[in-house]
Specification:
It holds the Pfam family MST. With about 160 residues, this protein is mostly helical. The protein has a single domain, classed as dinb family like domain (Four Helix Bundle (Hemerythrin (Met), subunit A)). The chain has 5 helices and no strands.
Length: about 160
C-alpha cells in the first residue's frame, strides 16, 4: 500500500500546482470566474473549497477533530492571491499532520453523516477521497485559468 510520504508527495504536487495557478492569476483574476459559464468557480473559491475538503475529511472525519466548515460559503469566498496562498499552506500543514496521525486500515472516527460508510470504510479510503477532490478541482482550476488568461490576453 502507499506510504504516508508517497501520498503526501502526490498531494503536495497538486497543492503546488494550485499555488502556481493562483500566482499566475494574481489579484486581478483570482476572484474571476468564466463569464460565459454560469456557475463556474473562481480560483479563490476552488482554493477555499479544497481547503475545506481537506479539513473536513482528513481532520473531522478521520480524526474526530471538528473543523468548522461552511461549505456554501466556500463557493462565494473572495480574497487576494496572498490570502489564497496562505489558505493553501494552512490546508497543507493540517493535511500533513492528519495523514501522519491516521491509521489507513482503521475506521474513520467520525464517519460522514448521511452516508452508509461503505465507500469510506477506512481512514485510507477517506484520504483517497481527499486526493480525488484535489485532483478533480485542480483540473477545473487549470481550465478556468486557461480560459481567463486567454480572454484577458485578447483585450
Amino acid at each position: 500500500m502507499i506510504t504516508p510520504d508517497s501520498y503526501l508527495t502526490f498531494c503536495d504536487e497538486a497543492l503546488d500546482a494550485y499555488a502556481v495557478v493562483v500566482r499566475e492569476l494574481g489579484d486581478r483574476l483570482v476572484n474571476a470566474s468564466v463569464p460565459s459559464l454560469e456557475g463556474s468557480n473562481s480560483a479563490f473559491v476552488l482554493v477555499s473549497h479544497v481547503v475545506g475538503v481537506m479539513g473536513r475529511w482528513g481532520r473531522t472525519v478521520n480524526r474526530g477533530i471538528v473543523v468548522p466548515r461552511d461549505r456554501d460559503a466556500e463557493f462565494t469566498a473572495t480574497g487576494t492571491a496572498d490570502e489564497a496562498l496562505a489558505l493553501l499552506e494552512l490546508g497543507r500543514a493540517r493535511l500533513h499532520e492528519d495523514v501522519r496521525a491516521c491509521d489507513p486500515a482503521a475506521a474513520p472516527v467520525s464517519p460522514p453523516v448521511g452516508r452508509d460508510g461503505t465507500a469510506y470504510a477506512t481512514q485510507g479510503d477517506v484520504l483517497l477521497h481527499v486526493y480525488e477532490e484535489l485532483a478533480q478541482h485542480l483540473g477545473q482550476l487549470e481550465v478556468t485559468r486557461d480560459v481567463l488568461l486567454a480572454g484577458h490576453l485578447r483585450r
